[in-house]
């Protein structure tokens, strides 16, 4: 399965780095469906001159949780999340939840530019034969629970 949908998220001190990196790689991003949290998405839209970016709510207003829900529903193949390791955020629980859901559903996650570059240039990005292992939660969902 080639990567088709990418979620792009950055904290304020990391937004310029993300926008610059995406702009430098605009050809690679051209065929991809892009999702972003509100403010990150607005900056990307303005700088990339792309009006097809699916902008969700701003992160602290629920946007991180919206991205997490889309990952759980299988709509997002790759998360690029430049979070700020030097600044506490009011919505830290939402950030942790987003990173947890991405790990749970086994999607690739880049939290910095170096990792994002590795992933974006990987042959798996366009390989229809490569299928990241889909987790099987049947033991969990079918577990006996007393009522
Ligand atoms: O806060 C964010 C991620 O945790 C990003 O949200 P914005 O893109 O709306 O700034």
UniProtKB/TrEMBL annotation:
Region (Disordered): 127-147
Binding site for substrate: 11, 15, 37-40, 58-59, 91
Keywords on record: Lyase
Biased composition (Basic and acidic residues): 127-137
Catalytic activities: dihydroxyacetone phosphate = methylglyoxal + phosphate
UniProt cross-references to Pfam families, sorted A to Z: MGS
PROSITE patterns: METHYLGLYOXAL_SYNTH, MGS
EC numbers for this chain: 4.2.3.3
GO-annotated biological processes: methylglyoxal biosynthetic process
Keyword Acyltransferase part of the UniProt annotation: no
MGS-like domain sequence ranges: 1-147
Superkingdom assignment: Bacteria
Active site: 64 (proton donor/acceptor)
GO molecular function (one): methylglyoxal synthase activity
GO cellular component terms listed in the entry, alphabetical order: cytosol
Family: Belongs to the methylglyoxal synthase family.
Purpose: Catalyzes the formation of methylglyoxal from dihydroxyacetone phosphate.
Full protein name: Methylglyoxal synthase
